[in-house]
Design goal:
single chain, mainly beta, 7-stranded mixed beta sheet, 4-stranded antiparallel beta sheet, globular
Length: 127
């Protein structure tokens, strides 16, 4: 069955970096876009970034643009989220999700476009 497993979260100081990984199985990763979302305590789920099948198209939330980079390795069936210059407001549980589609247009950070989700990994930015 379809599985998405996130890893790489942890505690980091403000200004630090982390790289999250999303290992996919049970479907052909090449055929689908993948997104990263996050949910902070007491807040709704927020779309962070997405990447199309061939990595030809990516999109980012304004809050992370210029600091986060999404990438994918279809051979390793893994999608990554490189997070730099982390801020306390980046603290959240981060989830990866499989899109129903292959592309990643500007409106692709809506959770309704995704049908399978990982269990999440905690990222805490604090001194």
């Amino acid at each position: 069955q379809v599985q998405l497993v996130e890893s790489g979260g942890g505690l980091v100081q403000p200004g630090g970096s982390l790289r999250l990984s999303c290992a996919a199985s049970g479907f052909i990763l090449n055929d689908y876009a993948v997104g990263w979302f996050r949910q902070a305590p007491g807040k709704g789920r927020e779309g962070v970034s997405c990447i199309s099948t061939t990595a030809g198209s990516t999109n980012y939330a304004n809050s992370v643009k210029g600091r986060f980079t999404i990438s994918r390795d279809n051979v390793k069936n893994t999608v990554y989220l490189e997070m730099n210059s982390l801020k306390p407001e980046d603290t959240a549980v981060y989830y990866c999700a499989k899109s129903r589609y292959s592309n990643c247009p500007a409106y692709a950070l809506s959770s309704s476009r995704y049908d399978y989700w990982g269990q999440g990994t905690q990222v805490t930015v604090s001194s």
